[in-house]
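Researcher: Please translate sequence to structure tokens.
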Amino acid sequence: MNIINLIGLGTAFIFIMGCQDNSSNPISSDDLNINLESNWVRLGPGGGGSTFIPTFSYASPDQFLIKCDMTGAYLTKNGGDSYRIINNPNGSQSFAFDPMDQNTLYIGSNWLNRSVDGGNTWQRIFPPEKDIKEEVFSGDHANYRIIMNPDSQFSDIGDQVIRNIKVDPNYSNNVYFSIKNYFFYSIDKGLSWNRIEVDQTIEYIYTDTNQLKTKVMVFSPNGVSVFDKNTWEYSFSTYPDQMSSAFSFTGGVTKASNQTVFYALQNNLENKTIGETSPTSIWISRDLGSGWEQVKDPVIINANVAVPTYSRISTAENDAAHVYVVTSDHQEIKEDGSIAHWYGTLKSDDTGTSWHWVWKGGGGSGQYAVKDGKDASNLTDTWVREAFGGEYIRLIDVGVAPNNGEVAIVTDWYRTMKTMDGGISWVEVYSEQQPDGSYTTRGLDVTTAYGVHFDPFDSEHIAISYTDIGYHHSFNGGKSWIRSTNGIPPKWHNTCYWMVFDPDVKDKVWSVWSGLHDFPRGKMTRNPKWKDYGMGGVALSSDGGKTWQPTVEGMGFDSPSTSIVLDKNSPVDKRTLYVSVYGKGVFKSIDDGKSWDLRNDGITGSLAAFELTLLPDGTLFLITSPIPQHINGKAGREVHMGAVYRSTDGAGTWERLSIGERVQFPNG
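Model: Translation complete:
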């Protein structure tokens, strides 16, 4: 049985790594001598993670860019039927299409990329190549950083990212972007650059062919700077006091009245953290940012109930009477007096005067993994509705086609959805349902896969253990996929880290799970209370992974489990299995997984057991990852470093191996 590990950078790419049984079918170097371009295709159900900044082309609503929360950016030219992935170190942070040339696209990351052939090839146009001294990757996230030559006029931007790219619709040689509180501009299509410092971080850059032919507006949390395109001098005006700490700006020109209008959100900066709710107001300017008024529509302010949380707002640049806003918490009082938490999207078709729901889901307690609500009724979706519909699902972002306010994309924790009729209906653009009820990706794959696993009795049966979306398997050689979590406790659902088929008993499968994803990343254990949320354990299936039964006697349901290996020499009806539990150590079972014993003799320091490897002669290897000590239950800098151990007596005792002083974070 071959098992191949996967790590996903916005999509899943296969390479050889870690937790596996190496007792048969080793992979030779000849197996790796292949043409990646012609022999590799994406597998999986599609979607599965958050996507951001959907940005449409001016030429067609069928062409748009979108990014995930890893390094992947995705380009489609057929409305989302298929995608091409574009990777940049640290991921992409901004997109722009040239309004005058449909083949010219820009992507901002740590550098500014431009394509002049519709996205087929890309060239870095900022920072100038002559100014770059070195490019480095560091840390457990492989963070990318540019080191600039000290004599460069941009020597201080090495680890910053490019945001808010804007191509001037009047003069396409003019290109603008921001880095923190610097406004950058080029009047020669990126051959040379200048920058101007403003007082605050720049949130949005705008100009148009209407009232702003000679001006560029640069929006910050507390005010707007208006630049003259001839002199590059600017004036600054502040917002009303109640609008201070504004964010998520958007603007455009209305078709009917040819009026430039801007929209913005506002809440308190200290509450603007990922995962937090914060009362949010919506503001509108109809006089080029000189004056602003707060939206008082009763749906928006949610009169007599808690003020909703809004996260993103977007309008059509050339059809700006239409505007969409995403909410992650919009409360209602039920008849019994309890609170119903709704999430979704509201829309205005009259320049923000009145608003109505175009996507309304939830209605339950607003808790993750608790199915006491409902998904929005006007969504045509694939596997996510069945998997997570009824739970709380945070909506993430919204983007609107620049020339047609009836076309928009809204994203959430798992999926990307598109409307062509102004929100009357929404259809998925990440996955495609097959006639048999299974699903296949459209190329928008947005999660990490820990492993691909092959059934020893059925070459067409393949399983993938995923971050965030659990266990999926295919019965047609990977052409389409089915999610399988039936019997898995809801608090384990997030991640299936690994699984193993019994090599001698058809359809017998063990899998390991946790409600916490992304182990062994250090961020997962920085909170001293991480174990309070660290549910997980082992599950057994007797029908090929279609249904599961937890089997955690001696281990408990609070055991985030990350790898499992099976001793093929053990009796068929009393298999010996070993499991690594993050934060607890190694567990062993000699009765098919019915009961488990802790086997940590010789393991010191970190008990963040991450990966086990079993050799044919019974030798075990264990990797433990660095983990904070949390002395006296408090966060601190003290850390138990990672280590590699070996056991030659069935996990009776462990011997720590020397891996050199410089290796402190073994993870595979």
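Researcher: Any highlights?
Model: Residues 1-37 have pLDDT under 50 and may be disordered.
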